[in-house]
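Annotated sample (chain length 305).
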Amino acid sequence: MAVGELAGRIALVAGATRGAGRAIAVRLGAAGATVYVTGRTTRARISEVGRATETIEETAELVTAAGGEGIAVPADHLEVAEVRAVVERIDRERGRLDVLVNDVWGGEHLIEFGRKMWETDLARGLRMLELGVRSHIITSSCALPLLVRNRGGLVVEMTDGTAESNAGYRDNFYYDLAKTAPNRMAFALGEELRDAGCTAVSLTPGFLRSEQMLDHFDVREENWRDAIAQDPHFAISESPVFVGRAVAALAADPAKERWSGRSLSSGQLAKEYGFDDVDGSRPDCSAYISEVALGGKDASAELYR
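Output written by the structure step:
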């Protein structure tokens, strides 16, 4: 997209400490937007995720370095007063909100795959729902009154899996609910935002090479292909920049209302808007998972890039 295409736009990326949230914030900044980035991990405090290597201050600096204006605001999106304070600050300083990205999560450490619902620790399960569902509801409730003041606003509910791919069970009762809910939230908000001329979608990246995932495989972005030996499906993985470009393209699209209420993927939007990942490829993770990983088709991941 053209540099400065989002100049004058104000965005709030909730959960911008790392991964998709950070990349989305940076790509919005690269297109000229002012981006308020929130999260629980700062240079002075670490969240329950337990990673001190990424902070919201660093994200804000990356946004500014990319060409936008990054503003870090510490906030726990389960605390209504803190979220309201963020929105009030945006209103006071800018008077508008054009893009809201709900990327709050941070529940990977709670997932116990392979356990039945009644075998799963209830406190861990409920915490997943707080992080993946309740936080999104609180954020939208507080931020949407500001967003709907102007037509053309965009809400992006970040999740893991489209409505179609989430139709199968996610191997954990609570994780299944936490990642299915944002798709339905986007559908419902699409209905409710229509009269205001605003758009709501849910969006999933593919197999994301987040900082946390790279650490899991003990690789870096520069040598990520070394991890394919550990997990062959990692060959279809994508950098966080890919989904960041997807959100920036959506935000700049004057006809984005046609997507409202829908569940989208980064690969799908890459085909629509013509952007690539950082290596020049265009991974279609959804098709690969459906046809190869789950469907049993004998095909290389390279055919889906």
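Annotation: The longest helix spans residues 122-147.
Annotation: Strands lie at 10-14, 34-39, 69-74, 99-102, 154-158, 199-204, 263-265.
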